[in-house]
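Case study.
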Amino acid sequence: AQKVTQAQTEISVVEKEDVTLDCVYETRDTTYYLFWYKQPPSGELVFLIRRNSFDEQNEISGRYSWNFQKSTSSFNFTITASQVVDSAVYFCALSARNGNDMRFGAGTRLTVKP
Amino acid sequence: GAGVSQSPRYKVAKRGQDVALRCDPISGHVSLFWYQQALGQGPEFLTYFQNEAQLDKSGLPSDRFFAERPEGSVSTLKIQRTQQEDSAVYLCASSLGSSGRYEQYFGPGTRLTVT
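After joint prediction, the assembly is written out as follows.
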């Protein structure tokens, strides 16, 4: 069975602070894919990143960075120098090799205050 | 280019009514997914199509839920005899391929309220 846990329900920070969103996953598959999606108040899920289970390199994209650690089954997401526009619900998701059943975590609501 | 579109964006139905929700995926995308998102929760998988074939419907909560994609493009999710517990946002997503490595692109969703 596959499961994604996002233990942080809500996080509130002040603009320019760094913030890390945690994601822990469970799977018996050796090949799998991890994703982060952003859901702004408008409601549409926006794809941010995909990692496959064989690539543990951390990735940085502008103010966003991701830390994938198989040893702890975690795929954490850090926003550096947060901005008000980063306010949204962020979802971590896990997909098996066959791709037909993506499991989402419950989401973390991030509020960035000016 | 055009993304995934869904219609209607909002639907209010009286309990017992049938509803039909439409999804237009990104052109050329092989895979199409339906999810149900309850308030404050993550999307929950309902069903999956690869072209016109419905390969997985394990997430459909009851036999009142039915989905189709007859020509491998547009898909319709139908809910018969709606119940209050069906109130949720219904999300459609499409992806280029059929493997888990392809990211899914989501539509804006249809918010269904059953009164």
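Observations recorded in class. Chain A has a mean pLDDT of 92. Chain A touches chain B at residues 4, 31-33, 35, 37, 42-47, 50, 52, 91, 93, 95-107 (CB under 8 Å). We will return to this complex in the next lecture.
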